[in-house]
Specification:
The structure is a homodimer. Chain A is mostly beta strands. Chain A has one domain: Lipocalin (Beta Barrel). Chain A is 0% helix and 65% strand. Chain A has a ten-stranded antiparallel barrel. Chain A binds chain B through residues 46-48, 50, 52, 54, 56, 68-69, 72, 74-76, 78, 80-81, 84, 86, 88-92, 94-98, 100, 121-129, and chain B through 46-48, 50, 52, 54, 56, 68-69, 72, 74-76, 78, 80-81, 84, 86, 88-92, 94-98, 100, 121-129.
């Protein structure tokens, strides 16, 4: 979706996200075995005040070769006001998420970092989907490195760390 | 996303949707001028029991040339049980939808038709999004033609027809 169009000025703070990112991460939760995954994330735009977002992960075994598809999600990122971030997501597991929080640059270190921190305000689910009560995500973009962590309360478990990954701009 | 992988047998009823569709439609609502649009829809899969769905529309003027981007949406389609359909969507307008209903073949005519009819069970919205109270969609796939209609109650208006489009497999 990234094209010759200029990024809408209303989302200029999100510019460091644009492009395709690949890397690896790990996941853990009391109800499942700990797992590693390879991940690809894309952020595109069409000149309007949102980024289109798509993510997909694959199983990563001991050999480091990506295997069968694991999770995927897609949606849109918005910054309706300076400092505010809104993310809407759909998941193939039958879940939708509305996440709200902040997007802010952090220039304290040697390199500028964009931090986006959001938590769920509405979680929707289809009749057949598992229960997800609450989620939070933190993203940090420094140059060509994107790190994120994700925490959730789901299927009756207390709110806790679930995912962490480090991606690099492709 | 459509590849050499066989479609998961749990969603075989959705097979007629696979591929890329393009065409035109029109929209109307009491709060906006009636408009025409060009549309592209893709349905892909990765061998798991869901279809990945993406849709984008563009302005269509009197000359028939596609113009600036209008709406977009992305999400996933599921059929957790024979006859049941679940769709989860995210919209760049800050809206999420969980839609549930049925997917059923209709062999009454000369050509088999797949009908998918869903209505919203959960609608999520970010703080900055407009209010959407209720939505319904009906899709009919006959060979290489996909028709859909969409009805909604939004921004305080009564539930009513909003969109209709006819697409052809590209």
């Amino acid at each position: 979706m990234a094209g010759p169009l200029p990024l809408h000025e209303g989302i200029s703070i999100l510019e460091p996200l644009l492009g395709t990112w690949t890397g690896e991460g790990s996941g853990e939760y009391p109800t499942i075995p700990t797992f590693r995954f390879s991940e690809t994330v894309t952020f595109g735009h069409v000149g309007k005040p949102f980024l289109a977002y798509h993510q997909a992960t694959r199983e990563l075994d001991e050999t480091g070769e990506p295997g069968r598809p694991l999770h995927a999600e897609s949606g849109y990122w918005r910054t309706p006001e300076l400092g505010l971030a809104e993310i809407v997501l759909a998941h193939p597991t039958g879940i939708t998420e509305v996440l709200e929080g902040f997007a802010a640059p952090n220039s304290a270190g040697e390199t500028d970092t964009l931090i986006i921190d959001v938590r769920s305000s509405v979680i929707g689910r289809t009749t057949s989907a598992k229960e997800v009560q609450r989620t939070e995500r933190t993203f940090e973009v420094t140059g060509d490195t994107l790190r994120y962590t994700m925490r959730m309360a789901a299927v009756g478990q207390p709110f806790q760390h679930h995912l962490a990954a480090t991606l690099h701009r492709a």
